[in-house]
Design brief:
- It is a single chain.
- With 271 residues, the protein is mainly α.
- It contains eleven helices and two strands; from the N terminus they run H-H-H-H-H-H-H-E-E-H-H-H-H.
């Protein structure tokens, strides 16, 4: 659907707000969502075959079961209800459910691709929900108004004036570059693990250093992409340095000491 069609759907929903048809549309949509939720529970409770392929397929199916079943039910309910009531709300639900299914699959593929990224598995639903929220605002035509509200919240960071919208853009840009950095990090780790004759201590040092450098590089690239000057971070750098010096002194020293021990070969992994 293009922007004009989406805007037409949203205007239709707004036009039905004072019509009794809206109550029946809400009832029909709620029934479709409830049936889809019950179907999702059946899919989650089913046992699958053994093997990596079965696990990946079942994991992907669990994530799209609810939006896909709801989408099919709405597609069946809309032409039936169209004979008696307006179906603007049901029509608007179609792109919303479709986008939810696509976003869930994309984040599942990202989590599977980043081997060892357990944090992405824990926050997969949160990230997918945030992205779907933005897409939903765009589909309903409320995104420009939401951006205006976020831009109205202004504050200073050093010499630069920032808005809440700038901060959110910076967070999204950093998260996107972090995902790319972690992907490169997983590739480097796989190459190092496959390297024959490389000392285990050196392998551990290279893996940790590469990950730390790539994460730092992702932050340095992500923030300027949205127009946030890195010099504004110097305002917080002093306070962070004091906090590290007093509160995290032992943790920082132990972290550095770990690298020294690994490079010194006095203690080896497995001892």
């Amino acid at each position: 659907m293009n922007e004009q069609e989406l805007a037409s759907l949203w205007r239709g929903v707004l036009g039905d707000l004072r019509q009794p048809d809206l109550v029946w549309q809400l009832f029909a949509l709620a029934a479709c969502l409830l049936l889809a939720k019950l179907g999702e529970r059946l899919v989650r409770g089913r046992h699958v075959g053994t093997g990596r392929a079965w696990e990946l397929g079942h994991g992907g199916l669990k994530r799209i079961a609810f939006p896909l079943m709801a989408l099919l039910l709405v597609l069946l309910a809309r032409p039936l209800a169209q004979q008696w009531i307006h179906v603007s709300l049901l029509s608007l639900a179609l792109p919303l459910l479709s986008s939810l299914a696509v976003i869930r699959v994309v984040f599942y593929v990202l989590r599977v691709s980043f081997l060892g990224a357990g944090w992405l598995g824990q926050f997969e639903r949160i990230f997918a929900g945030l992205v779907w929220g933005i897409v939903a605002l765009y589909i309903t035509g409320l995104l420009p108004e939401a951006i205006d509200v976020l831009e109205s919240v202004k504050f200073s960071a050093g010499k630069q004036r920032l808005t809440l919208w700038n901060v959110l853009q910076g967070i999204v840009a950093v998260l996107a570059t972090l995902l790319v950095a972690l992907w490169f990090s997983s590739m480097i780790e796989a190459r190092l693990n496959a390297a024959a004759g490389l000392d285990n201590n050196l392998r551990a040092v290279f893996v940790r250093l590469s990950k730390a450098l790539l994460i730092l590089l992702a932050v340095l690239i992500g923030l300027p992409m949205v127009g946030i000057d890195l010099t504004t971070l110097s305002v917080f750098g002093g306070a962070l340095g004091v906090g590290l010096g007093f509160g995290l002194q032992k943790i920082a020293s132990n972290y550095v000491s770990g690298f020294i021990i690994l490079l010194d070969d006095s203690i080896r992994i497995g001892n």
